[in-house]
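TICKET: design request
STATUS: open
ATTACHED STRUCTURE:
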C-alpha cells in the first residue's frame, strides 16, 4: 500500500514503544518501575473532576464554538495576561483537545512547502513531525549540556536565515528540563525580527519550574507578541492529560485561520472538559503548588542519586519533570543502555535519541512516580551499571 508523502515519515513516540515492552515484562511477572511516560502521577484534582462531572450532568454535552467556549477564552486570556505580564484578548485564544493542536494547526497555517522551521534537538518529537506534515524543512538546533540545555546560539546564528519561516521554542523543555534564559530569548528575538519570522513558544511546563524561578517568555519581549504563538494547556499543570484540553494564543487573524482548521478537523473540544478547565483556572491553586513542591523534592532526590553513580553526570533541571543524565561514559548507545536497564534493572526509561540525534549519550527519566520508587530505581540502576 502506498501513502501520501506527508505521512510516510511519521513514527510513533518512543515512550509508547518502551511502555509496551515494559508491560510485556510485567505480564510475565516482572516488577517494573515506570519512568518513561511524561504525565503527572497525581490524579486530576478532585474539585476539577467534580466540575467536569457536574457539567455532564447539567447538559454541557453538545457542540460549542470551534475555538472554545467564549467564557473559557476570556478566562484563559486573563490568566495568560497575568502570568506573562502582557495583554492578550479572548479573540486571540484558541482552545483545543490538548496542547498538540496548538502546535500543529498554527504550523499548518503558516508553513509553505520548502519553508525552513527551526526546532530544538533533543526536543518533543511532535515538532519535526508537524513541520514535515506541513511540507516544511525541519532544521534542528542542538541543545547542549554545557549551555544548560538552552539553545546553542552559535549554531542557531548559522541556521537562521531568510528561509526560516518559524522557530519552535520549548521552555522548560521536554526532555531536558532546561530553561531558556532571558538573554538567550533576546538574542533569538533579534533574529526573529531581522528575518521576519514566527515563533511557537511551547510553554506547557511554564508553571512547573523550581526554586521559585519565573520562566521568561519570548512573547513578553518588545514587538514579539504579534509574532508569537504561545502554547499552553492543562495536561501537566493540572494533571489532566486524559481530559485533552489545551490552548494557544496568537494574533487574531491567525487565530481565525486556525479556528477554520479546527472547524474542519476536530469540530470543537469537548464542552464539559472546558467547564472543568474553567474550574482549574479560577479556583484555588493550592494543589498545583503542592504538586510542584513534591516534584522539586523528587528532582533533588533523583539528581543526587544519579550523580552518586560512577559514570553518570546529571545536571539539575530547572523545570518540567524530567532528568536528562549524561551516560556517555558507558560507551554504548543510549538505546542499547535503555534496553539493558529495562531488561536487567526493571526500570523503564527513554533513550535521548527518542528526542532527536543530538540526544545520543543521554537518557530521559520522568520523576512522575513516588519518591520510594525513585530510590528503588536508583538502587537498581546503580547495581546494573556497576557490572
Ligand atoms: N509540548 C510538550 C513539550 C510536551 O511534552 C507535551 C506532552 O508531552 C505536549 C506539548 C502535549 O501536551 P498535550 O498532552 O496537552 O497535548
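STATUS: resolved
RESOLUTION: sequence designed for all positions
ATTACHED SEQUENCE:
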Amino acid at each position: 500500500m502506498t501513502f501520501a508523502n506527508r505521512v510516510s515519515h511519521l513514527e510513533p513516540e518512543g515512550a509508547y514503544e518502551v511502555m509496551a515492552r515494559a508491560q510485556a515484562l510485567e505480564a510475565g511477572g516482572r516488577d517494573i518501575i515506570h519512568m518513561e511516560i511524561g504525565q503527572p502521577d497525581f490524579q486530576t484534582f478532585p474539585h476539577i473532576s467534580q466540575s467536569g462531572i457536574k457539567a455532564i450532568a447539567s447538559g454541557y454535552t453538545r457542540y460549542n464554538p470551534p475555538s472554545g467556549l467564549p467564557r473559557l477564552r476570556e478566562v484563559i486570556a486573563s490568566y495568560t495576561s497575568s502570568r506573562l505580564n502582557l495583554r492578550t484578548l479572548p479573540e486571540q485564544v484558541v482552545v483545543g483537545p490538548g496542547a498538540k493542536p496548538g502546535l500543529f494547526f498554527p504550523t499548518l497555517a503558516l508553513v509553505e512547502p520548502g519553508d525552513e522551521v527551526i526546532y530544538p534537538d533533543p526536543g518533543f518529537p511532535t515538532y519535526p513531525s508537524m513541520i514535515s506534515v506541513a511540507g516544511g524543512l525541519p532544521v534542528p538546533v542542538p541543545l547542549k549540556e554545557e549551555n544548560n540545555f538552552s539553545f546553542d546560539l552559535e549554531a542557531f546564528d548559522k541556521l537562521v536565515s531568510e528561509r526560516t519561516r518559524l522557530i519552535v521554542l520549548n521552555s522548560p523543555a521536554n526532555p531536558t528540563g532546561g530553561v531558556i534564559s532571558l538573554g538567550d530569548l533576546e538574542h533569538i528575538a533579534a533574529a526573529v525580527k531581522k528575518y521576519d519570522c514566527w515563533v511557537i513558544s511551547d510553554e506547557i511546563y511554564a508553571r512547573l519550574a523550581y526554586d521559585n524561578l519565573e520562566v521568561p517568555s519570548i512573547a513578553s519581549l518588545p514587538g514579539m507578541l504579534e509574532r508569537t504563538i504561545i502554547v499552553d494547556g492543562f495536561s501537566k499543570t493540572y494533571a489532566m492529560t486524559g481530559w485533552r484540553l489545551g490552548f494557544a494564543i496568537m494574533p487574531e487573524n491567525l487565530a481565525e485561520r486556525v479556528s477554520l482548521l479546527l472547524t474542519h478537523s476536530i469540530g470543537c473540544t469537548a464542552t464539559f472538559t472546558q467547564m472543568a478547565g474553567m474550574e482549574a483556572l479560577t479556583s484555588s491553586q493550592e494543589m498545583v503548588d503542592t504538586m510542584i513542591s513534591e516534584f522539586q523534592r523528587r528532582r533533588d532526590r533523583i539528581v543526587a542519586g544519579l550523580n552518586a553513580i560512577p559514570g553518570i553526570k546529571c545536571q539539575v533541571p530547572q523545570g518540567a519533570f524530567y532528568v536528562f543524565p549524561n551516560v556517555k561514559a558507558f560507551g554504548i548507545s543510549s538505546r542499547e543502555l535503555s534496553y539493558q536497564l529495562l531488561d536487567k534493572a526493571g526500570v523503564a526509561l527513554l533513550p535521548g535519541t527518542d528526542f532527536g540525534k543530538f540526544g545520543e549519550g543521554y537518557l530521559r527519566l520522568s520523576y512522575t512516580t513516588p519518591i520510594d520508587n525513585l530510590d528503588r530505581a536508583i538502587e537498581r540502576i546503580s547495581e546494573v551499571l556497576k557490572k
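CLOSING REMARK: The chain has a mean pLDDT of 97. The CA atoms of residues 37 and 211 lie 24 Å apart.
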